[in-house]
Amino acid sequence: MPKLVDPGERRREVAEAIFRVARRDGLEHASLRAVAAEAGLAIGSVRHYFDGQADLMIFAMRYFAERAGARILAAVGQLRTPDTDAPPAEHVAALERLLAEILPLDDRRREEAEVWLAFTTSARTRPDLRRHALEMFDELAWMIDTLLAAADGLGALRPGLDLHAERIRLNALLDGLTMHSVLQPDRVGPPELAEALRHHIAELSAVPPEGPLPL
Amino acid sequence: MPKLVDPGERRREVAEAIFRVARRDGLEHASLRAVAAEAGLAIGSVRHYFDGQADLMIFAMRYFAERAGARILAAVGQLRTPDTDAPPAEHVAALERLLAEILPLDDRRREEAEVWLAFTTSARTRPDLRRHALEMFDELAWMIDTLLAAADGLGALRPGLDLHAERIRLNALLDGLTMHSVLQPDRVGPPELAEALRHHIAELSAVPPEGPLPL
DNA sequence: TCCAACGTAGCACGGGTGTGCTATAAAGCA
DNA sequence: TGCTTTATAGCACACCCGTGCTACGTTGGA
User: What's the pLDDT at A1?
Assistant: First the structure.
């Protein structure tokens, strides 16, 4: 046989090709032919690793959701072992820093946000993708819930907050900022993102934030 | 000739058919054939009113943007002639009420939000639609700017606010809530929308809001 | 009454797409 | 060496798409 290839690695490479096509032309143009060309493969080769276009699409979104989920888990893990003796201002800064990971503040995260928006909006009318869109939504909601609860437990937040309502609001704010930055980058760029997040966290916090904006 | 038809009215009817297809199947399935079938017309008839598929698409988005813009203008007009003797609480309530017009709180506005999301996300990779997406964005931003400035001028807002930064944040919050309500209606429904808006306006206001939630 | 204008309808063509199926070269294994 | 497995590649078909073009009623005006 030809030089043995790790099938999982190949599948992931093809998925990355889908991401590039989706960013450049939109997910609706991610045909087998277009993706194969983007990956530098023949259409028959791609089909050797996927049952068909639907299978390819589902794998790509699941792969994307898994990567995003892993990053969220890692971020939450960072606040799970806090220094309980540190002053509240440091906890506020940590909360702001972890939430800034979600925003498209650099090119890498902006590319990811473009793919995220393509998949998550497309899933509305694609039953086979909806499941993964819901997973991504719930995972981010859980992350924000967890971070807010942790910060509140450390006394970093204003007393008397309705944490559930604040999660819904912060969740919408973060995704709204991300959407605006993806769709209208001339209007909402990294400075606006960082400023909006800092301002919002400051309103939730018991102490004002410190340090530079997390660009 | 057959019973004379108002061409403008026909074009608008076809545009409404596009909206229905976009909501049900996604904008990428709004082909000439699908739209004609949805409108109850033959494909040749649709082509009698449009130069082609691109022309149809552009008209539909412009028609949508014009309707949305007209509604925004009307809403702003309501706050343009305020009762300067009224207490600040009434101005806060008016601000909340006008902004609630943007949110998908009932079926009609939810349908509009679905179409809006389809067009505005699709425009990212469609140069001929980008212009109208930017217009819609700027119009909403202008509305929020205007409403915040008016409310502030009437003493309804907390003193010392950075109105520009607050506009960016409120804009992202509103569009983020709308997107969540469209994509995950089981997670974010009308009660969550109304509550989040009320809570946010309350934080901006000099006085607490009154009255029932604007469902 | 006749004709020109208009609304409606549809054929036919080239192009893109997913998929069933086949072919071939390369490399591991006996 | 010879056989099998694997990766790659591509043909062929049916389907959907936009569009150029033609055809045919229907209705208003001369």
Answer: 54
Strand D contact at CB of residue A153, distance < 7 A = no
Helix axes A190-204, A88-100, angle to 10 degrees: 140
pLDDT value, residue B86: 81
Q: How far apart are CA A49 and CA B57, in angstroms?
A: 36
User: Of A188, A96, A104, A213, which Cα lies nearest the Cα of B171?
Assistant: A188
Chain B contact set for A165 (CB, 8 A)? 195-196, 199
What percentage of chain A exceeds 70 in pLDDT? 98
Q: Left, alpha or beta for B160 (phi > 0: left; psi -120 to 50: alpha)?
A: left
Tell me phi and psi for residue B205, to 5 degrees. -90, 155
Q: Is the pLDDT of residue B3 over 70?
A: no
Return the residue of B nearest to A161 by Cα: B199
Q: Is the CB of A48 under 7 A from strand D?
A: yes
Phi-psi region of B211 (alpha: psi -120 to 50; beta: other; left: phi over 0): left
φ and ψ of B52, to 5 deg: 175, -170
pLDDT over 90 at A85, yes or no: no
Q: Out of A28, A169, A199, whose CB is closest to B165?
A: A199
Indicate if the pLDDT at residue B199 is higher than 90: yes
